[in-house]
Amino acid sequence: MPQTASAFADVAASDAALRRFLHGLPGVDAVGLQARAAALATRSIKTTAKAYAIDLAISMVDLTTLEGADTAGKVRSLCAKGRVPDPADRSTPRVAAVCVYPDMVPVARQALAGTEIKVASVATAFPSGRAALPVRLADTRDAVAAGADEIDMVIDRGAFLSGRYLQVHDEIRAVKAECARPGGEPDAHLKVIFENGELATYDNIRRASWLAMLAGADFIKTSTGKVAVNATLPGTLLMLEAVRDFHAATGTRVGVKPAGGIRTTKDAIRYLVLVNETLGADWLSPDRFRFGASSLLNDLLMQRQKLSSGRYSGPDYVTVD
């Protein structure tokens, strides 16, 4: 029978115990993992199933702007697009969230008022995570106080790659504590970003997945989108398998968010196939799976218009991010 996640509390009792547990996880068969991801990527989805998949993918998008040149006007424009992705077809689903830097949270909160769209904010010295823990905690606290429903944090990759697993675990727990709201309001959900492209090995991605879930992550996320290698099908499949195994062991459901480099409808559908084949229909929901993207929504809208009209309209027929 599944146990609660607290059954693993002794794992994090010491750095040595956590290291033994993480290094005791089965090694990843890289060839097998890549072959499985490649095979699932060949699945073909047509007609009504494709239409369903496109609408599902739109509803899972975290529409994102994370640039130094972001302005309040740009954030409001992005929120307007999230609320009404296709003004010519009001049946188009809304996105799951709009993701911004902490100082833009109040702007997004106001622009999304009255909708179910979440305000997500990166924090903890995104994207590098290179700041003292009190600074990263203050970053999180400010975003939550400003109204963020979700926090996307980055782990200290230097600490992780140096084997300081307990430090990373405790920092995730400390950030999670800052996601609490007073007065019985729902806590902000915590998405923990690994930056898979910097973790170098599949074994490290599996260890990071378990480490974050043991520390209380609500979602595990592949990447910041700010490095050369971001979300990949094999890396995401490995994280989905870790979530499956964690759920089997604890009964706790953790979400997954691939981010960076997912730009086309074909890409999005491949990821949905991975989710369905690995975790099943329970994870085919914005509550359990998200796409971190800035340009994906445009292609989803163009493909949706093509299915309904029979014509491929091109990028000039969707709103610009």
Question: How would you describe this protein?
Answer:
With 321 residues, this protein is α/β, with parallel strands linked by helices. The chain has one domain: Aldolase class I (TIM Barrel, Alpha-Beta Barrel). It is 46% helix and 10% strand. It contains 13 helices and eight strands. It has helices spanning 15-23, 30-40, 47-59, 72-83, 105-111, 133-145, 157-161, 165-178, 196-199, 202-214, 233-250, 265-278, 296-309, and strands at residues 61-64, 97-100, 118-122, 150-154, 189-193, 219-221, 255-257, 291-293. It has an eight-stranded parallel sheet with strand order 7-6-5-4-3-2-1-8. Helix 5 links the parallel strand 2 and strand 3 (118-122). Helix 2 (30-40) crosses helix 11, helix 3 (47-59) packs across helix 12 and helix 10 (202-214) packs parallel to helix 11 (233-250). The longest helix has 18 residues, at 233-250. The N and C termini lie far apart (47 Å). The model has no long low-confidence stretch (mean pLDDT 93).
